[in-house]
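sorry for the late reply, my laptop died twice this morning and i had to redo everyting from scratch. anyway the thing you sent over, i finally got around to it. pasting the sequence first so we're on the same page, its 573 residues, then the predicted structure underneath. double check i copied it right bc i was rushing
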Amino acid sequence: MDTQLKFRVQHWLKNDPDPLMRAELQALIDAGDEQAITARFAGRLAFGTAGLRGVVGAGPTRMNRLVVQQTSAGLGAYLMAQVSDIATRGVVIGYDGRHDSQQFAEDAAGVLCGLGIKVYLTKKIAATPLVAFGVLHLGAAAGIVVTASHNPPQYNGYKVYWGNGAQIIPPHDSGIAACIEKAVNEQIKVTSLDDALTAGHLQILADDFYQAYRDGVHQSPVLQHQTAPEQVSLAYTAMHGVGNEMALDVLKDAGFTKVYSVAAQAQPDGDFPTVNFPNPEEKGAMDMVMAEAKKHNAMLACANDPDADRFAVAVRKSDGDYQMLTGDQVGVLFGHYLLTHAPDNQRFTCTTIVSSSLLSKVAASLEATCRTTLTGFKWLTNVGMTEQTDDNRFLFAYEEALGYTLGTMVWDKDGLSALVGFAQLTAELASQGQTIWDRLESIYQQHGFHLNSQVSIALKPTTPNIGAYLRDNPPQSIAGHKVVSTDDINLGKRLFADGGEEDISLPASDVLIYRLDNDARVIVRPSGTEPKIKCYYEVVETMNANDTLASAQLRAQANMDAFVNAHQASLPK
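ok and here's the structure:
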C-alpha cells in the first residue's frame, strides 16, 4: 500500500464513529487486500441531484456514518451560506426501514444541531413523501430523507429537498457537493440528541405530524371524487417497506373497506426476505400481492415501493388473472381522470421526455397544458411550481418509472396519495359498470394504442461516441420511416426535416429525440460514464372499431420489435 493511501486509511479509521465499519476496514488491512482497500478510497461517493446512494460499507466510496456526517456538515455549511434564517427555519429529517437508516438520520441531526441549525426528526420510520410534505408544512429550509428507495438490501441513500419542498436541482447540488469536499478536511462536531433537545435545537416529529399528512391526503382537493368506494376491493403490499400503516389509514379515510394487506410483507424489514429485488417493476416482485388479490377476487393488486414514493398496480382481467399496468398507462389514466374533474384554472400537467407522448395528446384534447421535462421528479415538480400561473395551476405530473404526484400537497412523487387516487378512479368506473380496461381502451380508441419500450445497449470499448456519430450523421429515416424532426437537447434545438428549427426550453443534456412520419419516436441517451446507450422507443397503432386491447397490443408489439431491431442495426458497432 503506498504511503498516501496508507495515510488516508489511517485517517479514516481514526475518524469513523462506527466500530463495525472500522472492523470491516481493519479486516481488509489484515488480509492485505490492497485491491479492495483501493476501491474503497478511489474518490468519494458522489453527491448529485439525487443526493447520495450506494452500498453500505467502510470507506469514502460507500454509505456509512462518517460519509453521512461529512455530507451533513457540507449541507449545513451550504444552507448557512444560502438561507439567512436557517437556524430557526431548520431542516426536516426522516428515514426508511433499512438497517442503518435511523442511525444515519440521527447522525445527520447531530451534525446539523451542532451547527446551531434546528432539526425536526421523525420519531419513527416515515415514507419519503412525508418528508417532502413536512418541509412545506413546517416551513423548513430543507429536508433530508435517509432511504435507498427500491434498491437491494445492501444499499442506502441520502436525499435532499430544498425549502420549496422539491428535490434539489442545479446549482444547489454542485454547491452542496463543494461544501462537502471542504467539510471532509474539517473537524465535525456531532451533538448528542439529548443535548440537542435540551438546547432546543431538536424537535421530534410525533404522531401529530403523521396525522397532519394523513389529514392532508383526506382533504386534498384532487382526491374528493368519492364515488361508491365500497364497491372497490383491493390487495396491498408495502413490500417490506414503510407504507403499510399509512396506506391502510388513507384508504380507510377515503371509505375503502375491502382492503387486504399482504401480512408477510407488511412490516419494515431491511433484508426484504420475500422478494429478490424490492422494486415493483422487477419480475416476481408483485407475485404475493397478486396472489392475495386472487384469494379475495379483488379488483386491484396495489404496491408501494419500500419508501412509498412509487405506486404500482395490477388490474383483474375478465379471466380472473391480474395484469400489471405500465407506469405510462397509470400516468395517462390519472391524467385523463384528474383533468375531467379539474376546475378551469387547474389544468397544468407535466411528464418527462422518456415517458409516453399520450398524456400530451389527452391534455390537448381536454384543453389542458402538458409540459415535458428532463427525466427525474426533481425537474417535474420544480417546473410545475415555477411555470404554473393563477389561471393555470399545477394538477398532476408523472414519470414512467411508477412516479406520480397528484395536486400540490407534496412536490415529489407520492405513492400513498396515488394509491387513494387510483382506487377512486376504479370506484368511479365501477359505479358506471366499467373497468380500468374499458377506460384505457376508450383513450386508445381516441388517440391510438401507444406502446413504449426501453432498451439498454452495451457497446464495445472501440465503438465510436454514439452521440457525436449521430450528430455528424443525422439519420434521414429509421426502420423505413422518414425522420420528421430531431430534438437535440444538448443544443436546445428542434431540427425539422425541411430545414426549419425552433428552440427547446430544457436544460442541456446529451439526448437526441427522433420523431417519425408514422408517429413513432426513438430517444437516444448515450452514457457519459460507460460504453452503453439507453434507447426509448414508442410506437402508435391506430385502433379500428373491431380492435380489442389485445389485438391492438399484438400489432403494436410486432411493430415495436421490427422498429427496435432496425434502429439498433443502424447504430455504429
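The mean pLDDT is 95.
thats about all i looked at so far, will dig more tmrw
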